[in-house]
Design goal:
The protein is built from five helices and no strands. Helix 2 packs antiparallel against helix 3, helix 3 runs antiparallel to helix 4 and helix 4 runs antiparallel to helix 5. By secondary structure, it is an all-alpha fold. The protein is about 75% helix and about 0% strand.
Length: about 170
């Protein structure tokens, strides 16, 4: 059986190894990974807390909204964190990375907006009973809602494209 070192021998080892060193600071890229990971953890914690609150308040629509927008919110959090981390990149890459991060924020915000509009359209469609025997009005209303939903998605995409194009600096 191996012999465990005594406190005296551990102290002698510490003294022999030289003075105690302070832990090394994080490099820029390690800091970037910590910030990106922290943003994902913050989004996850916020979603879990909100889901808990909404479930206790018996608000199933709000819980569905959270579930539908979770991936878009993650992408938005990471892209926003990325805009803050551009300054850690080498100087010759900063301009390009800043533009890429700006475009990522626009795409992620559009993704969240499309998810929210889809949920609102689903909630509106639930008001109509298309399973009834005389369902002409309900089917017409649901068809109109589907058309409006597609128009809203196209509008969000067009606005996102316009914002992205106007944010690109002129060469």
């Amino acid at each position: 059986m191996p012999r465990l070192p005594s406190a005296l021998s551990l102290a002698a080892l510490d003294a022999a190894s030289g003075p105690a060193r302070a832990p090394a600071a994080l490099t820029d890229w390690e800091l970037a990974l910590v910030v990106l990971g922290g943003s994902l953890v913050a989004v996850a914690v916020a979603y879990r807390l909100l889901a808990l609150v909404f479930r206790r308040a018996q608000a199933p629509q709000a819980v569905r909204l959270l579930e539908r927008s979770k991936q878009g919110a993650r992408a938005l959090a990471v892209s926003i964190a990325g805009t803050q981390l551009v300054s850690l990149a080498p100087a010759h890459l900063q301009a390009g990375l800043a533009e890429l991060a700006r475009l990522a924020v626009i795409v992620a915000a559009s993704w969240v907006a499309i998810g929210i509009s889809g949920l609102l359209a689903d909630l509106a469609e639930r008001r109509f009973d298309v399973g009834a025997s005389d369902n002409l009005r309900a089917r017409r209303a649901v068809t109109q809602l589907k058309i409006v939903r597609r128009m809203v998605v196209v509008g969000i995409v067009i606005i996102a494209l316009l914002v992205a194009v106007t944010s690109v600096p002129q060469a």
